[in-house]
């Protein structure tokens, strides 16, 4: 099974970048209990106060899809939607290893 990675950005509504970032950090906390989520990092752009980036690594694409059905994750998605003006760049990747990832 290949790992599945995503790197993507959300464009928050003007002035809502901090609130959106906090909700995504809460999502990371929820995902602590999900063994299939190997990495979930929320980052901010120093040049765009309304951009929020997320870097994720999962044991598989199926595991990522399944995580979106978790009731706690769905609730955070519901809370985040009004804060999001649009989606920015998104890249699906196949992580092969590195610092912070368990060896397979």
How would you briefly describe this protein structure?
By secondary structure, the protein is of the alpha+beta class. The chain is 31% helix and 34% strand.
The strands making up the biggest β-sheet line up spatially as 2-3-1-4
CATH topology: Alpha-Beta Plaits
User: What is the count of helical runs?
Assistant: 3
**CA-based shape:** globular
Structural class: alpha+beta
Characterise this structure.
This protein has 104 residues and is of the alpha+beta class. It has one domain: Alpha-Beta Plaits. 31% of the residues lie in helices and 34% in strands. Strands 2-3-1-4 form a four-stranded antiparallel sheet. A hairpin with a 6-residue loop joins strand 2 and strand 3. Helix 1 packs antiparallel against helix 3. The chain is globular and about 40 Å long.
Keyphrases for this structure?
single chain, 104 residues, alpha+beta, Alpha-Beta Plaits, four-stranded antiparallel β-sheet, 3 helices
Write the layout of secondary structure elements.
Layout: E1 4-12, H1 17-31, E2 37-44, E3 51-58, H2 61-67, H3 71-80, E4 84-93
Antiparallel strand pairs: 1-3, 1-4, 2-3
Helix pairs in contact: 1-3
């Amino acid at each position: 099974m290949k790992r599945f990675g995503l790197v993507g950005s959300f464009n928050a509504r003007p002035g809502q970048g901090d609130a959106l970032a906090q909700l995504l950090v809460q999502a990371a906390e929820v995902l602590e209990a999900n063994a299939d989520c190997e990495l979930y990092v929320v980052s901010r752009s120093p040049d765009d106060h309304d951009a929020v980036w997320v870097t994720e690594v999962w044991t598989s694409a199926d595991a990522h899809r399944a995580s979106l059905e978790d009731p706690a994750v769905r609730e955070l998605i519901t809370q985040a939607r009004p804060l999001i003006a649009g989606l920015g760049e998104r890249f699906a990747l196949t992580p092969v290893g590195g610092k912070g990832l368990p060896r397979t």
